[in-house]
Amino acid sequence: MSGRLLVQTLRWYRVRLLVVTLAAIAWGVIIPIIFDAFSDAVRDLANSGAFPEEMLNIGSGSLFTLPGSITLGLQHPLALAMLGIFAIGASATAIAGERARGTLEVLLARPISRNAVYVSILVALLISVVIVLVALLGGMIGASAAIGLVDELDLAQLPLVLLNGFLLWAGFATFGLATSVTFDRPGPAIGISVGWLLLHYFLEILGSLWTDAAWTQEYSLLHHFNPGEILTGKLDPIDLVVTAAAFVIPLVYALVVFPRRDLAAPA
After folding, report:
1. Which residues pair with 58 in a beta bridge?
2. Which of 81, 102, 75, 90 is nearest to 174 (CA)?
3. Which of 118, 226, 215, 96 lies closest to 167 in space, CA to CA?
4. Three-state SS for 113?
5. In whole angstroms, what separates CA 93 from the centre of its chain?
6. Any idea what DSSP says for residue 267?
């Protein structure tokens, strides 16, 4: 790894990271407030039979409990977009974008290996993802404490929430980088990476809304990160295995393919 490239990459992300972090804190604060304000109304609506309970859930989360609300907040498209800015957008354009601009050859002309370039960019992306994830969870826990609901959460399990969430989004980041080292243009890399995230979101939402298709959730990586269950002491070890595999497989692919790949002349 190149420390100099790592620092420079973080500098390139700094404004974007600051804005997204502040937005993540704000979104995290809103979730417990929404739960406190509307959970009783949602529960009454479900009990009235006016809507099926499935229609009041989003993915693996719900407004019926605070842990469920936290899961809902982290699976909401807004949270996915915040984390996806770095795990999907920045990762997919990292190498392919340099290649399209014709600057990758200049970088590789220096005494730095391709694997060092890859690892340096990956570490910078993972640091950014962790900061945004901590901001989201910090806003949620802080707001829960401020309105007196933190007793509903087992905060001793918070490190496991961070680990599971890190593995999930690190998996999307390594997938994005795997597409980035495969293509010479950012367009295909971004398209495939965004499509990968949307596929998992579709499977998660489909299974939560359609009882007969509930099995589809097991094939969604997003389903294997359920902070609400973890914060109530119900972590399934399989979730850590699945998300760790999603992180390691694209990582190994990129470390094998990128150093061996011939780089064509810029178009």
Report:
1. 61
2. 90
3. 226
4. coil
5. 17
6. -
3-class state of residue 62 by DSSP? strand
Residues 241 and 221: their CA atoms lie apart, in Å, by: 11
CA-to-CA distance for 95 and 24, rounded, in angstroms?
27
Residue 146 has which token pair?
Answer: 């401020």
Find the angle CA(200)-CA(83)-CA(137) to the nearest 5 degrees.
105
- The sign of the torsion formed by the CA atoms of 85, 168, 141, 57 equals positive
User: Model pTM?
Assistant: 0.87
CA-based nearest residue to 120, from 1, 12, 248: 1
**pLDDT per residue rounded down to tens, the chain (267 residues):** 767 778 877 888 889 899 999 999 999 999 888 877 776 666 665 566 555 555 556 667 677 778 888 888 888 889 999 999 988 988 888 888 777 777 666 666 667 788 888 888 999 999 999 999 999 999 999 988 888 888 878 888 889 999 999 999 999 999 999 999 888 888 899 999 999 999 999 998 888 777 787 888 889 999 899 888 888 888 889 999 999 999 999 999 999 888 776 665 455
Name the token pair of 137: 């969870």
For the chain, first and last CA: distance in Å? 29
86 burial (CB, 10 Å; 0-12 / 13-18 / 19+) is buried
Q: Give the C-alpha separation, 61 to 30, whole Å.
A: 15
Q: Looking at this protein, which amino acid is placed at residue 79?
A: A
Structure tokens at 225: 């990160």
